[in-house]
Predict the 3D structure of the following.
Amino acid sequence: MTRVVEARHYLTGLKHSLELQPGTEYHAGPLEWRLAAWNPAHNANSNSASCWIAPALVDVQINGYGGVDLQSDSIDLSRLLKLCAALHRDGCGFFFPTLITDEWPRMMRRLAFLKRLREEHPFTRGMIGGWHLEGPFLSDRPGFHGAHNPRFMQDPTPAHIEAVKAITGHDPVLITLAPERPGAVEFTRLAVSEGFIVCLGHTDASIEQLRECVQAGATAVTHLGNAVPQNLHRHDNVLWRILDTEGLSASLIPDGVHLPDPVLRSIWRIKGSDRLFFTTDAMAGAGAPPGRHRIGHLEVEVGSDRIVREPGSSNFAGSALEPAKGVQLAAEALKLPWQETWRAFSEAPLRILNKSPARTAKPLANPRCCLIPLAQPFTPSGIETILMEASTSPF
Ligand SMILES: [Zn+2]
């Protein structure tokens, strides 16, 4: 059975005829259609198109989703499939499971276990594009450590790189660290030479420390504007230092809460769309009804306002943002067409992370695209995520 769909390219608006074939019907997980051919439409009248086509959303910071916590030691294949299916439903076709700070041996056990689970199923293999370790090499100072437990933080060493490599092999790995940790610059240089992507975050680094890490190969700042104390020196603070550091890209959480609209707009103006990409930093409560959820040891509450609160604290503990909802909120906040913010959440993360010196040999590639209803204004519903092969990719 073949489906023929007329779709407009999300950036050029040009109409194309898509030939879709049924993909693998997974035992658990969605039936995915596969883009088999992509041709310019004979009839250029775009009114007859039924949808937009865009690359699937890419999220390199997923702590949990759809009621499933990736920090949990009781995760199994059915729960990992549930998480992947929920992300897929919400427009994300490629993501990095993210492990936050814990005792190092426990983090490595979790990583090894998730890696084994990923290999067990074609759907998890296709959805999981790499691994993100956010910690334990972060600032342990109040306000900077955020929801991470400072007790388990430590300085990065070459032995840590070996331990991760022994588990992940040739998989892409992103490590977020604080440049002020002793050994961070040497670690960055070595990690990048081993093919890792290094990002900076949960940090109060000096301008020199930031620059040294960028020279050593660090690519971006993780969730810029967050993981900083409520009260900062108005001039001498890490946000200005990061904005002043050339060559440093950044990820942003566009949920309207982590970054108020004027802050998001200002960062956008200063850094520019070439250097920014979006992430949800989602935890288990994203893509799930409001209620209590866990991030490892931490119990958090997701309210009806979709804000994730650590009980008794003003800290945010990840977000409950769905990726396609982030596209909509960012477009509203930045007063941009949704196509621009979709690009910042799909093509931009891969373009920026592929610039990381050692990644050029084996670039990250998006295996999926999305069919998006033509409805105006954009809403994050009715999106269909489908497989595409490099040979038929319109992007
Ligand atoms: Zn964080």
Remarks:
- Residues 134, 146, 201-202, 223, 227 surround zinc ion (CB under 6 Å).
- The longest helix spans residues 104-119.
- The mean pLDDT is 92.
- DSSP finds eleven helices and 19 strands in the chain.
